[in-house]
TrEMBL record:
This is Fungal-type protein kinase domain-containing protein. Residues 259-448 form the Fungal-type protein kinase domain. InterPro entries: Pkinase_fungal. The lineage of its organism: Eukaryota, Metazoa, Ecdysozoa, Arthropoda, Hexapoda.
Length: 448
């Protein structure tokens, strides 16, 4: 009922490799002889592999209503930290090594490990229960939000960025139908012919990686990748396009903010002669940051710039749970995810090397083919004919709540990100309601 299949192969292969290199027997008991870095490497192969399985999105943890997929993401973040206690996860590693383990047992151990790794509530006064413990970027009041004011607080808010996570692509792109197969076919086409697009690097890649030149190059390449993949992309997939206006501020932010590169829906058209002429942060599906220097792939340069864009998107889109993005520093790329716990990123890869070139193609095609839930939109809030609504169960009956407008949304990345909407019942339009939505630890009592 809970198929894992060969999902543990990579984890078991790494364990065998570690044991062989240290002349150790490949048994579960050997885990107790391994250091924290080996255990971390094993866990960061196992957990994303389990999270990428479709069943992880339908199984629920024992601690609450959260799915194991969301619990695994939190556990991955915890494992990547320097302070993680690996005794909490050793039982899961041990049972995953065994060939005779039932799938249900593994999922039970996942749930237990995730629950134990949830940070406990801090000892604070009951009157302050559920309030944020540290300042984040939602605390600005009457501010023009200049970068020199926002960035220091945003850096504190994102104090722990977990970068270099293996299997990132599989975790966030793995549910896109046939993406790997299509990407391989498209990349193969790029290497064929008398004038291949890729031969020991991408044809036309601009020397020096100047921003304007890279924007021109990537815009042309994406058109060719789409053409190669066109007959393999279902007609039901929403069409997307590249947005490259790094000098033009996007509407919808308090301070003037422009973004180097990103993706929007194709039906959003720039109309320079109209009053609503600019693209808005509400239009952005994927954020991107370009740097010509490979050494800019650090927290104080490219990462904070990308985080600033993600914050604007989360603030402008009231149904957004997380934001995907990418940094391209020279030819070195990372793929990112920002949510209410902070930010995580893939391993760095060079798009001008064969393996990185294929990963680049898969990333671009993935962004073009993802559905809205994969992009981070809340699937419980439905939009039909321009009207948003949410269905809830109360007193044994289903109620449809029509969302009229946003009252307040906290403009932050990490934190509770409280959102309040004005709403009404579908069958009672004259009686206004307020819907409050926020993030909290699953082991805390619900408010209300």
């Amino acid at each position: 009922e809970n198929p894992i299949g060969n999902g543990l192969d990579a984890f078991r292969a790494l364990f065998t490799s570690i044991c062989t290199s240290r002349n150790l027997t490949c048994t579960a008991d050997t885990l107790h002889q391994l250091g924290s870095e080996d255990l971390r490497n094993l866990a960061l192969i196992l957990l994303p592999s389990l999270r990428s399985l479709p069943v992880s999105g339908s199984l629920h943890s024992t601690s609450g209503s959260a799915t194991l997929r969301s619990e695994l993401l939190r556990l991955i973040t915890a494992v990547a930290s320097d302070s993680f206690d690996f005794d909490r996860i050793k039982p899961l590693l041990e049972i995953a090594i065994s060939d005779n383990t039932q799938d249900a047992q593994i999922w039970d151990f996942v749930s237990t490990a995730a629950t134990e790794s949830t940070p406990p509530p801090r000892p604070i006064a009951s009157s302050l229960q559920q309030t944020p413990w540290s300042q984040n970027t939602s605390s600005f009041v009457n501010s023009s939000e200049y970068r020199q004011n926002v960035d220091p607080v945003l850096k504190l808010e994102l104090e722990h960025l977990y970068v270099g996570l293996p299997n990132f692509h599989k975790s966030f792109f793995g549910d896109i139908p046939e993406l790997d197969m299509v990407s391989e076919a498209v990349f193969r086409k790029c290497t064929e012919g008398d004038s291949p697009l890729f031969k020991q690097g991408w044809s036309g890649w601009p020397a020096g990686a100047k921003e304007s030149d890279v924007l021109t190059w990537i815009g042309g390449l994406i058109s060719q990748l789409e053409a190669f993949a066109d007959n393999r992309i279902p007609t039901s997939v929403a069409r997307r396009k590249l947005l490259a206006q790094p000098k033009t501020p996007l509407e919808g932010s308090t301070g003037k903010r422009s973004m180097d590169i990103g993706f929007v829906d194709s039906d959003i058209i720039y109309k320079p002669d109209t009053t609503d002429s600019r693209y808005r942060w509400a239009h952005i599906l994927v954020v991107g940051e370009l740097k010509n220097n490979p050494k800019a792939d650090i927290a104080s340069v490219a990462w904070i710039d990308l985080a600033r864009y993600a914050r604007e998107v989360l603030a402008a889109q009231d149904t957004r749970r997380f934001v995907l993005g990418f940094t391209l520093c020279g030819s070195l790329m990372r793929v990112w995810e920002f949510d209410r716990l902070g930010g995580i990123a893939s391993e760095q890869f060079d798009i001008n090397k064969e393996e990185g070139g294929l990963q680049f193609v898969a990333t671009i095609l993935g962004f073009l083919r993802m559905n809205e839930e994969m992009l981070g939109f809340d699937p419980t809030i439905v939009t039909t004919s321009g009207q948003k609504y949410i269905k809830i169960e109360r007193n044994g009956q289903t109620e449809c709540l029509i969302i009229d407008e946003v009252i307040k949304r906290a403009p932050c990345i990490a934190g509770r990100a409280t959102t309040c909407w004005k709403a009404h019942r579908h069958d009672d339009p004259h009686n206004p309601l307020v819907i409050k939505d926020s993030w909290q630890y699953v082991d805390r009592d619900e408010e209300g």
